[in-house]
Amino acid sequence: MPPAQVAERTGLSLDTLRYYEREGLIGPVDRDSGGKRRYSDDDVFWIGLISCLRDAGLGIADLRQFTSMLREGDPAGDRVGFLVRHRSELQRRVRQIETAISVLDDKIVYYSAAD
């Protein structure tokens, strides 16, 4: 697939796709005879995985670590442990957000009654 099609399919910019490749999170991406990138279905899978983990709040260093674990065939227990630690952090953040929403709801009720 050409880069523009992958960008449209994944919702990522061309710059982001190139950045992920430079950082070793995807690829190396094949190139055609003219040197243009051609993404495979496997590349698109990796992009989806990286995007999901990015949305979950993982930084580039964490993404490098996890993709390295996958590529090097680290034991499943190590990968599960990695993901469980990050899930715990996400759950902590969700609780913080829920508390903030509750405070805002209280303020909305308070200020609505003041009018």
Name the descriptors.
115 residues; mainly alpha; Multidrug-efflux Transporter Regulator, Chain: A, Domain 2; two-stranded antiparallel ribbon; 5 helices; 2 strands; flat; DNA-bd_dom_put_sf; DNA-binding
Walk me through what this model shows.
The chain is mainly alpha-helical and 115 residues long. It folds into two domains: 74 residues, Multidrug-efflux Transporter Regulator, Chain: A, Domain 2, CATH 1.10.1660; 41 residues. 72% of the residues lie in helices and 3% in strands. The protein has five helices and two strands; from the N terminus they run ααββααα. Strand 1 and strand 2 form a beta hairpin. The longest helix is centred in the last third of the chain and has 39 residues. The protein is flat and about 70 Å long. It starts with a helix and ends with a helix. It comes from Micromonospora antibiotica. This is MerR family transcriptional regulator. InterPro entries: DNA-bd_dom_put_sf, MerR-type_HTH_dom, MerR_fam. Keywords: DNA-binding.
Task: Write a short abstract of this structure.
By secondary structure, the protein is mostly helical. 72% of the residues lie in helices and 3% in strands.
Chart the SSEs and their pairings.
Elements: H1 3-10, H2 14-22, E1 30-31, E2 37-38, H3 41-55, H4 60-71, H5 76-114
Antiparallel strand pairs: 1-2
CATH class of the largest domain, named: Mainly Alpha
Instruction: List low-pLDDT spans.
Output: none
Strand order of the largest sheet: 1-2
The assigned CATH architecture of the largest domain is Orthogonal Bundle
Rounded Rg:
20 Å
The portion of residues assigned to helices is: over 70%
Assembly type: single chain
Profile the largest sheet. Answer: 2 strands, antiparallel
How many strands? Answer: 2
Instruction: Give me the CATH fold name of the largest domain.
Output: Multidrug-efflux Transporter Regulator, Chain: A, Domain 2
Mean pLDDT: 93
**Into how many domains do the coordinates divide?**
2
Shape: flat
Order of helices and strands: HHEEHHH
Spatial separation of the terminal alpha carbons: 58 Å
Structural class by helix and strand composition: mainly alpha
Strand content: under 5%
